[in-house]
Design brief:
It is built from four helices and 16 strands. It has 234 residues and is an alpha+beta fold. It has a six-stranded mixed β-sheet with strand order 4-3-14-7-8-11, covered by helices on one side. β15 and β16 form a beta hairpin.
């Protein structure tokens, strides 16, 4: 059977493009997912860290870890301690390196509500042994995300309620004003470490209240002015 000209150079079929649905239609193709660690002081304290304003640090998830359209999340293997982390997600529309903080928001295409799901037992074991966090953070289905909205929808990303309910009960609630590193500061600093590109997502960190979930739990998160994210653990 003849190969399509666009794929004939590959020895296997190229992977599908991961894309997040956009409010009003269309989809946003995803290149990379960067996540900010410990970006709310109260969460830093609950994780046993100093909440002082240290330089931001980042870890990554693969693009195909995204879970969309309110799909169920399978409880991950090799873990008995799956935690939720509710976050504002930033979608980069215009790339660049060494982006000035004053210009950073011009590089944002839009925003979404998201969850950084974490195999806490694997992460803690890795921390203790000085090993990478990858298998605690970057596993399959570990990044539920809601519909993306254009940047103009969130006029001021420095404030707004962020909340997560589990089975209808509030687990996490805070405000974007309590981010240690604002969206603009985060973009600017990250762009000094790597050249950002269109399609990159940044999970901006979670507030306090992270806790374990079990099979059957329904997670419903909201970021004021942005939208919602929902999944059921199965």
């Amino acid at each position: 059977m003849p190969q399509d000209a666009a794929t004939s150079a590959y020895v296997i079929a190229p992977p599908a493009v991961t894309a997040v649905p956009v409010a009003g239609g269309g989809a946003f193709p995803v290149r990379r997912i960067f996540c900010v660690g410990r970006n709310y002081a109260a969460h830093a304290r609950e994780m046993g860290s100093d909440p002082d304003r240290e330089l931001p640090f980042f870890f990554c998830k693969p693009a195909d870890a995204l879970l969309m359209n309110d799909a169920d999340m399978p409880y991950p293997p090799m873990s008995k301690d799956l935690h939720h982390e509710m976050e504002l997600v930033v979608a980069i529309g215009t790339g660049g390196a060494n982006i000035a903080e004053a210009d950073a928001l011009k590089h944002v295409w839009g925003y979404a509500a998201g969850l950084d799901m974490t195999r806490r037992d694997l992460q803690n074991a890795a921390k203790k042994e000085g090993k990478p966090w990858d298998m605690g953070k970057g596993f399959d289905h570990s990044a539920p995300i809601g519909t993306l909205v254009p940047a103009s929808t969130l006029a001021d990303p420095t404030k707004g309620k962020i909340e997560l309910k589990v089975n209808g009960q509030v687990r996490q609630v805070s405000d974007l004003s309590l981010l240690i590193w604002s969206v603009a500061e985060t973009i600017s600093y990250l762009s000094k470490l790597v050249t950002l590109a269109p399609g990159d997502l940044i999970y901006t960190g979670t507030p306090e209240g992270v806790a374990a979930v079990q099979r059957g739990d329904v997670l419903e998160g909201v970021v004021e002015g942005v939208g919602t994210v929902r999944t059921k653990i199965v």
